[in-house]
Amino acid sequence: MKKILSLLISLSMLVAFCFTFIACNDETETEYTVTFRVDNAVYSEIKFAEGEKVTFPEDPSKGGYIFSGWYRGNVQWVEGKNEVTSDVVLVAKWKTSTGPDTQDKGQTTYRITVADFDSQMGTVARSPQKTNYVPNEKVTISVTANSGYEIRSIIINDVDYTDSLKGESTEFTTASCEITVTSATLVEVKFQEYGIWGNPDYVHKLSISKIDTQKGNIAVFPDRAVYAEGEEVTFTVTVNDGSAIKNFDINGVSKRADLTKEENTYTYTFAMTENTTLNIVFDDDLTKIYNANINNYDSLIARKGKVLVDFYGTTCSPCQNLAALFEQYIEALEANDPAAIAADVKIVKVNVSSNTSIQTSSPQYRIFQKYERFSNGGLPFMVMLEDGELIGYFNGMINDYNWLIGWMTNPTMDK
Questions:
Q1: For 239-250, how does the pLDDT look when each residue is reduced to its tens digit (9 = 90+)?
Q2: CB neighbours (10 Å) of residue 46?
Q3: Which among 128, 131, 162, 195 is placed 20 to 30 Å from 57, CA to CA?
Q4: How would you classify the pairing of strands 41-49 and 112-114?
Q5: Of 184, 202, 183, whose CA–CA distance to 192 is shortest?
């Protein structure tokens, strides 16, 4: 009996050892889910291994607002920096063209948001330090540069306070100003290496117009508030897919044709000889023909400017003739033809049939219904929109490219 009991104890210890060994050698990685939410809805869910640095999905878009970043509470996460160590929910935040955080819109209190800045170069504080402020509350914004740095610029809700706060001083390492909170407020502060303001050689200022960051971005090297006489400055412009540079003007003179292009990136270098203003405007890429369906139609026509919507059929010969003229227009744009550039039209095509008569069972027919009363019921049929409003339409065969360009430039409401 004792031998049997001893044998059972030995077997139990062996089984326990095996389970312990397997558990200790389990190399299965722990995974966590990062949930990205936009306006209380799940935008994306991505799994990461424990300790892996976060990567973001494609930036969301929202009409009338600019995407500000992904936040966990009030802390903004940085792609490639924050490590995932648990399940996390990140929320999209937005700002309007003047900066207010949309979470404050319509509230009885307002939030002051300090934009990202390099905390190794300086600090930005507000007094009183609170989450929300009542209307007309006085708040002091204090900016301090760390050793070796100075303040480059202070912009509050698009108002540049830099010159008024710096005054005639050759050093700009501390600044303080009192503001009255009447709306959600965005404070944007930048720092730079010390000694630029105090150096008499640095006299020329550079200002850049606001850009639509959903269509592209611009980087400046060297990136400073002022530049020396004759100093070379390089602009690097990155254009997002489906977009293009419409205007690139320096002190009112177009330099668009002088840009050096490599894939979706453009560069331009020039010497600073005076105070300089750069105006850059992005637009939809007019050298592309866009195919619309019931799901993407609204986003494709949401252009500030003219959009030609071509309703066509796959076996419609006149439609094919018109398509060839559109291709000719694209080629003319790429060749910088003045007439094509003056037309300034984005082309959006909608297939509403499988033969030469309009097919009412097509989902795209619902788009056509908006303009059906102007059509004779046949194809091709095209309408011209400007800022989303109908300004012209035409029904019938077109074989003359010059006539098409003329109509695109000055569309009419009939034949």
A1: 998 899 999 999
A2: 15
A3: 131
A4: unpaired
A5: 202
Give burial (CB, 10 Å; 0-12/13-18/19+) of 316: buried
Backbone angles phi, psi at 204, to 5 degrees: -95, 130
Which region, left, alpha or beta, applies to residue 256 given φ > 0 means left and ψ of -120 to 50 means alpha? alpha
Among residues 193, 195, 189, 158, the alpha carbon closest in space to that of 176 is found at 189
Question: Tokens 């326990």 — which residue?
Answer: 16
3-state secondary structure of 93: strand
The closest alpha carbon to 90, from 31, 32, 37, 33, belongs to 37
Cβ atoms of 276 and 224 within 8 Å: the answer is no
Q: How far apart are the first and last CA of the chain?
A: 109
Predicted local distance difference test score (pLDDT) of residue 285 = 94
Read off the pTM.
Answer: 0.62
Token reading at 188? 């944007």
8 A C-beta contact, residue 245 and residue 239: yes
The token duo for 70 is: 């992904």
For residue range 124-167, list pLDDT tens digits in order: 999 999 888 988 999 999 999 999 999 999 999 889 999 999 99
Quick one: which of 224, 196, 191, 185 has its CA closest to 208?
A: 224
Pairing label, strands 289-292, 345-353: parallel
Tokens of 177: 């100003």
CA distances from 238 to 58, 211, 218, 221 (A): 16, 12, 6, 14
Selection from 286, 344, 297, 352 nearest residue 319 by Cα: 352
Q: CA 73, CA 199: separation in Å to the nearest integer?
A: 42
At 184, the amino acid letter reads A
Nearest alpha carbon to residue 197 among 234, 156, 159, 151: 151
